[in-house]
Amino acid sequence: xxxxxxxxxxFFNTLLYDGNNSTQALTGVGFQPGFCWxxxxxxxxxxxxxxAVRGATxxxxxxxxxxxxTNANGLTSFDADGFTCGDANIVxxxxxxxxxxxxxxxxxxxxxxxTGSTITPSxxxxxxxxxxxxxxxxxxxxxxxxxxxxxxxxxKMVLIKSTSSTNYWVAGHASAGFNYYAYLNTNGAWTTETxxxxxxxxxxxxxxxxxxxxxxxxxxDSPFIMYSFAxxxxxxxxxxxxxxxxxxxxxxxTGFRPAFVMIKYHSAGNxxxxxxxxxxxxxxxxxxxxxxxNAEGTTDAIDFLSNxxxxxxxxxxxxxxxxxxxxxAFADFPFVSSNSKACVAR
Length: 346
Prior knowledge:
Blueprint: E1 12-18, E2 24-27, E3 35-40, E4 48-51, E5 58-61, E6 69-70, E7 75-79, E8 82-85, H1 89-92, E9 98-104, E10 123-127, E11 132-137, E12 145-148, E13 157-162, E14 170-173, E15 180-181, E16 191-192, H2 194-197, E17 206-209, H3 213-216, E18 224-229, E19 236-242, E20 251-253, E21 256-265, E22 271-281, E23 284-289, E24 302-305, E25 308-311, H4 316-319, E26 324-334
Antiparallel strand pairs: 1-9, 2-8, 3-4, 3-9, 4-5, 5-6, 7-8, 10-11, 11-18, 12-17, 13-14, 13-18, 15-16, 19-26, 20-25, 21-22, 21-26, 22-23, 24-25
């Protein structure tokens, strides 16, 4: 029996493209994105994140604590089969600049379940099929406040950013526990702190917030944007693994051949990002760092296999002996498919 009744590329896709220093409509995503993450592969630039809830041209940076900026030359529209960019270097510069993008399909913009919620979102888009939602809200400085996510099941990873202030990004991950948090824009360790998520795991309706300005401040801290992810068997996986400090590293079963994996050490270490198209074959799966603007790294760190991924390097950032790592992964191809095609390693 197939894990999912759809193909992963119906809801998530990676795309590589060359900049042209002009207006460029990028196609081949396969759907109209609701969330795009774009980074230059060969230049030192910020990671540019855009979503349909805040609106095209509204940019935030995963590697930087800056407030949202409006850039009319950045991503300018979400299109039926991709997105259009202006000539900003961060998304579409010239002179040999090359880029990768990650795109998620969003969904419903009305009818979110607010049972038990104490914060009403100002805008949102949620998709229960692919376990992804975008919620914009205003904080209230109150510990235990609840903001709805729309997924119908508890999300296992949450990313929150104040769009009007320079507060750090806050990440929560179920395997770390929501009594811990990490900052997406730094390499700091996961830390215990009640003011981020009130030491409370999300439930099937709400994400619980602490009273801190990074997730629930009022006044100049608001509004916030919250990205929530729930694992969908055959499409996404959100869990942990233990490193072994060996080039014959741990195998992590996901139930699919990955298109994208992001890994964060429990202790201090970068947020490592790997996608299936740069360069796109084992062992050359080039890396980016969500918390850094660096150009793409070339270390042979990971293999993408038919039902998961395997670490191939001893870097402490993702494979120290007997250390804990948290990850989120999205599928290129499910191990068991609805179209009767066999999944193989790359």
